[in-house]
Amino acid sequence: KISAFYKEQRDMVQLVNVFQAYPNTYRSFGNRDFGTIKGMTVSHDLRRTGNIRMRVSYTLQFASGTGSDATSALGLVNSGEPNLRTIFPYSFDQRHAFNIVVDYRYGTGKDYNGPKIGDFEVFGNTGLNIVTNIGSGTPYSGVKQARGEALIAPGSSPLDGTLNGSRKPWTYLVEAQLDRNFMLEFG
Question: According to the model, what pLDDT value does residue 26 have?
Answer without folding.
Answer: 80
